[in-house]
Every structure is written in structure tokens, then in C-alpha cells.
Write a structure and sequence with these properties.
Chain lengths: ~525, ~450
């Protein structure tokens, strides 16, 4: 932008030489970046504020419009290849090559964001169609939906300026979850391939091309694993927090469940049959009514004096080859214990009261055909009598706890905690990937720049996910997904608010419970 | 009827020195005899010479000698007529024509009819509760009905709720036992893998809440079994109850009927109880009044205690103290946790808000081991060892065995126990019973 007006011809640019005095002035100029100061959130229409803003703006403009003076020898030349969306170096790379760029078929290349950053630093001059690109051109051409977005570049540049080593995140470089679980060493081959980031995936959520084919292996693997419970996953697109303590375990579940389900099926057939039986059985018991007029018990107490002789039972019902005659029960009637029970006056009174009461006088009781119905009836009445607010219990939504059931405080807390606590990695392996949230960069700490190897970058310090302040806050689903994808490296959300970048991260913690069971 | 062939040394009496009595029984009569109780009493032997006879539903083999120990009260019944020989001198022996066996047989026939219907309609079989006051022959009727059911090919379940005189396990427990063969004439039902719950006392009155809870537990387990085992479902169950039929005891009976969803209640010799149950149980439950057998004898308190002792001894030493050899070893106090179920009642004002007194009856109270632990029977709960979390399941967990504390050494913090299995204890949660057992014999 600064040299926009001077970019008439490349010759002119290249040949532009500064006189000693001009050079000296350029060197002596202050390179201090103006201090931003406190942020003003609302315009308060005061002159003071307006003046401050104006001054700040002027400072920025003058800073931007300032001509950059660099030594010709230290500027690396490169050319922009739009078809491949990379920048190919034309002259030997500088010191930045230790942490940036990659080799492709013997050519040294830079990714667009790296090239743009180097342009801004004054280390690189990029030509396109033999014309040098201004920084503004760089912004326009390099930042696109196929490479990196402006916000992502802002984060990239911010971190680079702070000294971090920032690489694009390649999901396929992440070990598959099963490999992680087995603690396999990362294969060297994989690491090598990673350096020669031939076509490193763009961190931008590109809707079509690059993103889909680089759908990471682990994810695919996971999908395979999850395919059997795909329906379940579909049914639960929302988070399904389980209580398993870690992704590793969840993964175990996932991997082992095919055989398990096989086994279960094997059992299930049995159980199913039984439960079928049971259903029948219940259905049957619903109508169970022994016909006691045909099933004859020798009941001495029955008031209906049937016959004093009991017909001989069917010999097929009797053990052995028994055949017995009929039975005269009348002598037994007389012999049965009918003696008066000795009772006190009070007991006698109670007894008299009791004698008047008979459950079977009740019409509703007479309508019950079995115990289940009878107990239902009793429970209904019990509820009524207790004055328990039945209207609370007979609707779809019922109270979480019946206060008449005493349980311990711990159990009660457990019972009323509708929102169950979850850990970041709980059940994450079963989640379907989403396009909305992606990890963009691997970030390595500045202090390891000295012995940093692009071929073997090691474990990143953190991983960046770029989002806008205007956009939505990541939901638990996204957080879980990213955490699972990142494994044991923390995921940091870089939230871009125009020029300002804030970093947020989510961590597991345990809610304290002050309960002693 | 009883022709005495006493003191006749012949090959008919192979046991020399024993009196031999021959009885010829007509059809549908029974020989009742009692063996003297006490240490010095001699055993009696019974042999079926001809015809067919049964003891409480189990048929006798011909020419096999059955031995009955001191205190036995036996009735040999014949449907067709038989002759038996009795060796030894019984305390009482007589032949009675007057038996309610025909009524019991008719009861069995009715139950079998229900089982047939259940089998045909894919329903569950009859669940029968036998109730009555003490000493009316409840256990005997249960044994009879179960034996008959097994003999016609059913697999009924015996549910033993008589905590005082358990026929299955040691006293102070409630239990369920799947019956697969008729009772042994001498030993009773073979006790293989019964389901036993700890109650801890010989009368349900000490903790009626726990008693009802355990009844519900048994009912639930039995129902689950019925769901997976068709044969057990058709076979139904026969529930033996205790002789306490008033007040809470009566309420426990009604609760049991409801928990097991009984179809038939057999009331033995108690018309008042019969009438009460008819009023308190819904109409679809058939309540039947049956007479008791004239042969039933009243048992004294001492007699009951002896039977209980005998039952515990049988647990450790086997039938007649011959077949098992228990182990004796020391257990450190620190290795086990001993609990008593049911806290002593406290005034309502001392209770936490909203707690009712009843809740304490199911509470586990830790017992500090001390000298007073000696001779107590302890149940080894099958609840998983573990901390607080496991504690709530202990009351509803079945028992995996029993041990008796024979000696307590408070100095070294160990107790010596009598155990049916060598060390170590399978679980370390112990429940204390009120029942004590002194290993004197």
C-alpha cells in the first residue's frame, strides 16, 4: 500500500536507489509502533475522544504510508503460482527457511500466508507475471477461501510476530485414535511426508475441494468403526455425554462393541425369546382367571354347601398310579378349629369393626381381575389418601424425586442433576465431524526455534482454531470434536475482533461437591 | 391291627437286641410313631415289607431300612394298604384311620389342574401360601404338596418364610429352594443352591419391616426366575409361613400374598384366620380352609430350640453330623465388617427432619467385635466387598454362607470361627444373628 504509487514499472522499482542522506534518514527514523491504549467501546461524542481517535488514526496512516527501506541483497525473490496457490522461491531462501516453507520436486516453495508475512516483514519480494506485487496485492491474491482467510492470516501473523513457529494443521498427520490408544510411535514415513507438505490442507473450511479429500484417516477409521452404531449416532446428533472417563475408553467401547454386539445378539436371541414369552406371559396373566368352579378345592370353610362328598380326583393328576375314592368332608367340617379366640374388650371391639369391613364389597376391587390391577388400585388410593399432589405425578413431566422416599444427600444430588457433567473427551470418538469448526494451525514455542526441524517438528505447544468475534461460540459438540482430534495437545480458540485477537481455551475441571455420603 | 412279634430272633429281625413290631395297615390309614428325644434315646428303623406306603409324600422302598433319630415324629401313610416293620422301641406308635390325607390329595389335584391349565395357556402356575397357627403341620403340608408335584413331573419352588423353623437353611433366614426330586424320607428335601436371605432372628416380630422387605426380595427373584424358566413358572411355588397370625404377623401374611401374587391360600385349622383372609384378600385369591392332621403334636419351646440347634449343626456337620467336616480358623477383626440390621429406635425428636422411625429398621449398624460376639451365628453376605457404595445393597443381598464365632480374643483382635469352607472368607461383610450356637456335641 505504501509503495502503491511507485509501482509504475519494475525497472523503476528495481533501480530505485537512495542517496546516502536519504538512506541515513530512513535508517534513523523511529520504528516505534504507536501505543494503542485503552479501547473505547462507545462513542461519547466528546471532542477529547474524537481527537484521540484522529491522532491514533493519523499515526497509523503515517506508519503505513512510510516507505520501507530494505537492502536489496537481503530480499528474496519469488514468484506467485496462482494455479497451485503457492509461492516459488527464485533466489536462495533466507534464515526464515528454518521454520517456514517446503520443498517440492527440488523447488523451494512458500505457502501464501508465509509469503505474505515475509512480504510484510520486508524479507520477500513476490513477482507475478514478472511484476512485483505490493503488500496490498498480496493480501488480495494470497488470501482466499482456498488458502487462508484474512482472520486466519491475522492470527498467523500475530503469532509469528510474537516469535512462535506456526504451521498449518494437517489432520492426516494426527495419529488415528487407535494408534494413539496403543501409544504407537509416529512412523517416520508419515513425518517425512508431512514436511513435504505437497498440498497441505487449507485451514479454511473450504466447502469443496481440498478439505474433503484430506478428510483425516483417523476420522475415516472412526467412521468405519462407528458405522455399526451410525444410527445411534444419527439419533444423537447432539452431545451424548457418557460417564466413561476418557476417549481411550470410549474408543475401546467403539472398537469392541461389534463383537460385543455379536455376543449380545447371541444372548439376545435367547433373551428375546424369553422376553417374548414374558410378554405373552404378562398378557396372559392379565387375563389370568382361574375358574375355581371347575378347580375344586376341598374347602371346609366355604359357605355354599356343595356336596358333602368330594368326587374322586382325576387319576392323571395324582402321583404314581393312584386311584382314590370320593371323600366325605362333612366330618372334617365339624372338627376344624372354630374355638373362640380369647380377646380383651378392646380387641373384641376392633374385631367387630373389622368384620364389617371386606375388601371385596368394594365394586372397584371386584372389578380387578388380578394382583397387578388390584395393586394399581391400592396405589391410586394410597396416593389420594396421602394427599400427594397426584396432578404432579400423572403428567408427562414428573418431579425428579418423591420426597417420601428417603435417600442420601449424595444420591439426591445425583438424581436432580439434570445436566450431567462431562469431560471433554467423553464420547468424542463417536461424534460425527463437522465442517464448521476446524483446527487451523500447529503452534510451536519460540524457545525451540533454534533446534526446530521442519522434518520432525515434534509435539506442538498448542493448536489454533480461528473464529470471529461476530460468529457463534463453539458448542460442546465442536469443543469435544476438536479436543478429540487434537489428542493431548490443547486447543486454543483465537477469536478475532477486527484487529484484536484474544485467545481462549477450554479445560476440564471437577465441580466440587460438598457432600459426605 | 398291630401284631406284635416281639423278641423273636429270626431273619426278620436282623438287628439283634431291638424290638421288632410289625404293623399291617389297611388302605388310607397311617401309622404314626414318635422316637424318644434326648441324648440317650435310640434310633428307630422302619422297613416296608409289602404293599406301598409313603412318608409325607415320599414313597418308601420295599425292604430298605429307614432310620429315624431321636425326636422324630413320623407318619407312614398308605393308599393301598401295606405292612411295615418297626425296629426299636418308639415312644408312641399307633395306627390311625382318621387322616386328612384325602383332602390334601384333592388339594394337590386342584393345584395340578391349575398347572395343567397354566402349561396349556402359557401362563404362570399356581402360587400357594400355606398359613395357620403354630403346630398344625404347615411344613408337612408343604412337603406333601411339593413331593406330589415333583412326582407328577413339576418343578415347584419352596419358599420358606418360617424364620423360626426353616426347613431349608439355618434358622433366622428366609429362603427359596427349587424342588427337583421328592424329599428324602430321612433327610427331607435336598438342599442344593438355595436362595437365602439373612433375617437374624427367630421371630418376624423383632423386625417386621425387614421381614416384609425380604419377602418382597424373594418374590421379585422368584418372578424373575419364572420369566426365564418356563418350568419353574408352571410349577409355581408353595410358601411356608410362620405361625404368627395376629397383628403384624397377620399383616405380614397379607403383604406376602400381595408380594407373591398368590392364587391360593391354604389355611390350616383356623377358621377365624380363614374368614379374615377372605375379607382382606381380593376375590380372585382362593382361600381354602383345611383341617390339620390328628397326628400333629404340639412342640414345646425346648423342642423348637433343639430343632433349631440341630438345623445349625446339620449345616456344619451334615445330616446326623456325619457327612461334613467344618473348618476352624482365626479371623482378624480388621479383615471383616460386622453389621446388625435394624438400629434401636430413637425418639422422633432426635430424628433428622422428614425421617420416620421405620427407616431405622433397615439401617445397617456396625458392630464392634467384642467378647459378646461369642457363639453368635454370622451370615456371610454376598454383597461385594467395598466401601460405602456397597453398603446399601447388603440388606437385599443373599447370603453365601454362615459361620459361628467360637472364641473372641480382644487382646490380639482376632476371633475364631467355625466355617464350612477353609479360609479365606469369600466375602468380608458379616451380618450378626440373634441366634447363638454352641458346638457342644
Amino acid at each position: 500500500m505504501a509503495d502503491q504509487n511507485k509501482k509504475d514499472t519494475p525497472e523503476k522499482f528495481c533501480c530505485e536507489m537512495l542517496s546516502p542522506s536519504e538512506l541515513f534518514a530512513a535508517r534513523a527514523r523511529s520504528h516505534k509502533i504507536p501505543v494503542k491504549g485503552q479501547k473505547d467501546f462507545f462513542p461519547n461524542d466528546s471532542d477529547e475522544q474524537r481527537e484521540r481517535l484522529e491522532q491514533s488514526l493519523n499515526e497509523h496512516w503515517s506508519l503505513i504510508s512510510e516507505e520501507r527501506v530494505e537492502r536489496l541483497g537481503s530480499i528474496v525473490k519469488a514468484s506467485w503460482i496462482p494455479s497451485e496457490q503457492i509461492v516459488e522461491l527464485q533466489s536462495p531462501a533466507g534464515k526464515f527457511w528454518q521454520t517456514m516453507g517446503f520443498s517440492d520436486n527440488g523447488k523451494q516453495c512458500l505457502l501464501p500466508e508465509e509469503a505474505l508475512y515475509l512480504m510484510e516483514c520486508g524479507n520477500l519480494q513476490v513477482f507475478y507475471q514478472d511484476l512485483p506485487l505490493s503488500i496490498q496485492d498480496g493480501y488480495e491474491r494470497f488470501l482466499s477461501s482456498n488458502t487462508v482467510s484474512l482472520q486466519q492470516y491475522q492470527v498467523f501473523g500475530h503469532l509469528k510476530r510474537l516469535g512462535y513457529v506456526v504451521h498449518r494443521f494437517d489432520p492426516s498427520s494426527e495419529p488415528a485414535s487407535y494408534a494413539r490408544q496403543l501409544n504407537l510411535p509416529q512412523s517416520h514415513d508419515r513425518a517425512g511426508r508431512q514436511v513435504k507438505r505437497k498440498r497441505s490442507t487449507s485451514p479454511t473450511p473450504a466447502p469443496t475441494s481440498s478439505q474433503t479429500d484430506t478428510q483425516d484417516a483417523s476420522e475415516r477409521m472412526e467412521e468405519d468403526q462407528c458405522s455399526h452404531d451410525g444410527e445411534e449416532a444419527k439419533k444423537l446428533p447432539e452431545l451424548h455425554p457418557t460417564t466413561s472417563p476418557g476417549a481411550a475408553e470410549a474408543q475401546t467401547d467403539a472398537t469392541s462393541s461389534p463383537d460385543q454386539s455379536g455376543v449380545r445378539n447371541w444372548w439376545m436371541t435367547d433373551v428375546g425369546r424369553n422376553s417374548g414369552n414374558q410378554a405373552d406371559h404378562h398378557a396372559a396373566s392379565g387375563s389370568t382367571r382361574w375358574d375355581f368352579s371347575s378347580i375344586l378345592f376341598p374347602d371346609l370353610g366355604s359357605s355354599e354347601r356343595l356336596s358333602s362328598r368330594l368326587a374322586s380326583p382325576d387319576s392323571s393328576l395324582l402321583p404314581g398310579t393312584l386311584a382314590v375314592g370320593d371323600c366325605n368332608i362333612s366330618p372334617w367340617r365339624r372338627r376344624v378349629n372354630q374355638r373362640e379366640v380369647k380377646m380383651s374388650l378392646k380387641e373384641r371391639e376392633e374385631d367387630k369393626h373389622r368384620r364389617q369391613w371386606d375388601v371385596n364389597r368394594d365394586r372397584e376391587v371386584r372389578q380387578c381381575r388380578n394382583w397387578a390391577e388390584y395393586r394399581d388400585l391400592l396405589a391410586r388410593r394410597e396416593g389420594k389418601r396421602k394427599g400427594q399432589p397426584a396432578h404432579l405425578w400423572n403428567r408427562e413431566v414428573t418431579p425428579l424425586h418423591d420426597p417420601t422416599q428417603p435417600i442420601s444427600t449424595g444420591e439426591l444430588l445425583e438424581k436432580i442433576s439434570v445436566i450431567k457433567s462431562t469431560h471433554l473427551l467423553d464420547g468424542a470418538s463417536r461424534l460425527k465431524g463437522s465442517d464448521e469448526w476446524r483446527i487451523c494451525f500447529n503452534v510451536y514455542q519460540p524457545d525451540m526455534v533454534a533446534d526446530f526441524k521442519k522434518s520432525n517438528p515434534g509435539k506442538p505447544y498448542s493448536r489454533m482454531c480461528v473464529c470471529s468475534f461476530d460468529g457463534p461460540v463453539p458448542d460442546l459438540h465442536a469443543i469435544k470434536l476438536l479436543a478429540f482430534q487434537s489428542g493431548d495437545v490443547p486447543v486454543v480458540f483465537a477469536v478475532v475482533d477486527y484487529g484484536d485477537i484474544s485467545f481462549y481455551t477450554f479445560k476440564d475441571f471437577q465441580l466440587p461437591t460438598d457432600v459426605f455420603p | 391291627m398291630a401284631t406284635e412279634v416281639a423278641e423273636k430272633p429270626s431273619e426278620d429281625a436282623p438287628v439283634p437286641g431291638k424290638v421288632s413290631n410289625r404293623f399291617d395297615l389297611e388302605k388310607e390309614t397311617e401309622l404314626r410313631f414318635e422316637v424318644e428325644s434326648g441324648e440317650a434315646a435310640e434310633q428307630l428303623e422302619l422297613e416296608l415289607l409289602s404293599g406301598m406306603a409313603e412318608v409325607f409324600g415320599s414313597e418308601l422302598n420295599r425292604n430298605k431300612k429307614y432310620t429315624f433319630g431321636p425326636g422324630s415324629k413320623i407318619a407312614v401313610f398308605t393308599w393301598q394298604g401295606c405292612s411295615v416293620n418297626l425296629y426299636g422301641k418308639p415312644e408312641v406308635s399307633y395306627v390311625s384311620k382318621d387322616t386328612p390325607m384325602l383332602l390334601y390329595l384333592n388339594t394337590h389335584a386342584a393345584l395340578e389342574q391349575m398347572r395343567k391349565q397354566a402349561e396349556r395357556d402359557n401362563e404362570r402356575g399356581p402360587r400357594v401360601m400355606v398359613v395357620g397357627p403354630t403346630d398344625v403341620g404347615k411344613s408337612t403340608v408343604c412337603r406333601l404338596l411339593l413331593s406330589y408335584a415333583v412326582r407328577v413331573g413339576r418343578r415347584p419352588t419352596l419358599v420358606e418364610l418360617d424364620v423360626g423353623q426353616s426347613g431349608v437353611s439355618v434358622p433366622g433366614t428366609v429362603s427359596a429352594l427349587c424342588i427337583e426330586r421328592p424329599a428324602d424320607v430321612e433327610e427331607g428335601f435336598s438342599v442344593q443352591a438355595p436362595l437365602v436371605y439373612h433375617f437374624g432372628s427367630t421371630t418376624p416380630g423383632t423386625n417386621i419391616k425387614l421381614y416384609n422387605k425380604l419377602t418382597s426380595c424373594l418374590a421379585e427373584v422368584f418372578s424373575q426366575r419364572c420369566e426365564v424358566n418356563r418350568k419353574a413358572s408352571v410349577g409355581g411355588c408353595i410358601i411356608n409361613t410362620c405361625g404368627w397370625v395376629k397383628g403384624s404377623g397377620y399383616q405380614a401374611l397379607v403383604h406376602c400374598a400381595s408380594a407373591f401374587e398368590v392364587d391360593v391360600v391354604l389355611v390350616l385349622d383356623h377358621e377365624r384366620l380363614y374368614n379374615e383372609l377372605k375379607r382382606d384378600l381380593p376375590h380372585f385369591v382362593r382361600v381354602v380352609l383345611l383341617p390339620k392332621s390328628g397326628g400333629v403334636v404340639e412342640r414345646s419351646k425346648e423342642c423348637r430350640r433343639d430343632t433349631r440347634d440341630e438345623k445349625i449343626r446339620e449345616y456344619f456337620y451334615g445330616f446326623r453330623g456325619l457327612s461334613f467336616y467344618p473348618f476352624s480358623y482365626e479371623v482378624r477383626f480388621s479383615d471383616v465388617r460386622i453389621y446388625k440390621i435394624g438400629a434401636p429406635s430413637i425418639p422422633d425428636s432426635c430424628l433428622p427432619l422428614g425421617m420416620s422411625q421405620d427407616d431405622t429398621q433397615l439401617k445397617l449398624v456396625p458392630v464392634t467385635p467384642g467378647r459378646d460376639l461369642t457363639y453368635h451365628v454370622l451370615s456371610v453376605s454376598s454383597a461385594e466387598d467395598g466401601e460405602e457404595g456397597a453398603r446399601k445393597g447388603i440388606v437385599e443381598s443373599p447370603v453365601c454362607g454362615f459361620i459361628v464365632v467360637t472364641n473372641v480374643d480382644t487382646q490380639t483382635q482376632v476371633m475364631k470361627v467355625l466355617s464350612p469352607a477353609p479360609r479365606p472368607l469369600p466375602r468380608h461383610t458379616l451380618l450378626i444373628m440373634d441366634i447363638r450356637f454352641m458346638d457342644m456335641k
